[in-house]
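User: If only I could read backbone structure tokens as easily as an amino acid sequence. Underneath my words sits a plain record pairing an amino acid chain with its backbone structure tokens. This is the protein in question:
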Amino acid sequence: MLSRRHFLHFAGLGGLSLAGLPLLPGCSTAVPAPSAPGPDPLPDDPSKPWWLRKNFAPVGESEARDLAIVGALPPTLSGLYLRNGPNPKGVESRHWFVGDGMVHGVLLDKGKAPWYRARFVQTPVLGGAKRGEGPPGLAEHQASTGILGYQGRVFCGQEVGLPYEIKKNDLSTVGPYDFSGKLKTAMTAHPKIDPVTGELMFFAYGLSDPIITYHRCDAKGALVQTETIPVPKALMMHDFQVTETRVIFMDLPMLFDLDRAIAGDPLPYVWRPESGARLGVMPRAGTAADVKWIEVDPCFVFHTWNAWDDPADPNVVHLEGVRFPSLWDKGSTDFNTTGSPHRFSIDLARAKVSLTKLDDRFVEFPRINPARQGRRYRYGYGVTTTLEPSEPGATPALNQIVKYDWVAGKTVVHALPADQEAGEAMFVQDPQGTAEDDGWLLAYVFSRATSRSHLLVLDATDVAGGPVAKVELPGRVPHGFHGDFLPTGA
């Protein structure tokens, strides 16, 4: 058995198969409002690992009001843009994935930007607290990966525990959320909302147990289905997909390694291509017995764009995402391997998967118009780079935002100025628009020249054109992971 100390060597990865701790009350109501910092010299201590240097380095909580705008914000772009990411507080994380969660939010309101806030998710392990105290539970993780607006609530998620709810008005923490006591496993960082039915679907995977657990909520937010699906070995599955009728799981050869966990590896997963790889397809309301597994060549997929049922053949399902031919060959802190866009066409009748490469370039953080989730779609968005990694193991800085037109076979790129680096670019629908790409792309962009960040707004119908607007922020937004947009009134 692993000790508490060994679990916390890979902070936040404890307890998928363990009982959760009692839920916390509101955690941060007594936290005083932080002030806005000024730009500071970019941290670059060569003695630290790459995920603690330059614009990966953490920042403190901050806020600012009445933000300056370059250009003009569209008046119909009103709502709250949020993005989550790892931001270690007071301690140095041993892996990029396991820093304390910090949410960066900008409120947009009828052409103005009333406020920006950066707030920690107030979890029991914030700042390295509770090390060595008792067994881990579902509430003990950093909540540092994804963010989701759902049923008027805002959830922060990580790979391994219950989602943490935060308040929209000030980003303070409410506490873990367990769907009225029904959720007994984690909610991973990539749940899917059906835009037509309103159903929410998500999953968990066992840390050391060879299982996937699928969950489905109805349109009112009630958890109505939990299905445990056995797999041959304990795996890491960061994302999944859904169509109008089906769920797609990815059993890929990134496997939990007990010896590495005991030795204190910060993320004890290893690439084992000899174990094979497969995709599993199940009806959305199906059971483990209904899953059809089909082998594919070994690969790994962190993130997907979408999946849909083939309109011409009810036995065919298509899945599109960023495929890595291998990952972490030199250990879990080595991010120099790159993935590229691929389509997996799954023929259930013939038990065969056809693979189509859609682009040669490295792309990550794929996004779509969420109104097309689970349906055939035309446009996909992502971020890419023309740069080499700054040092061995480091993920390269992303300096281009890309739009794919899968129907026309065209690609349009927005190239950032030479000193700037982008995070995930998410699509926000124009409420007055009618076409699939009527809307905007929002991304936090960091400038090395000023050591500050801004919120970039692009016209999604004219990605190659200049910015529609830039919302100036008081300091840096470190590189992080995933965001969501909550329209006013949502």
Observations:
- Helices lie at 4-9, 258-262.
- The two ends are 45 Å apart (CA to CA).
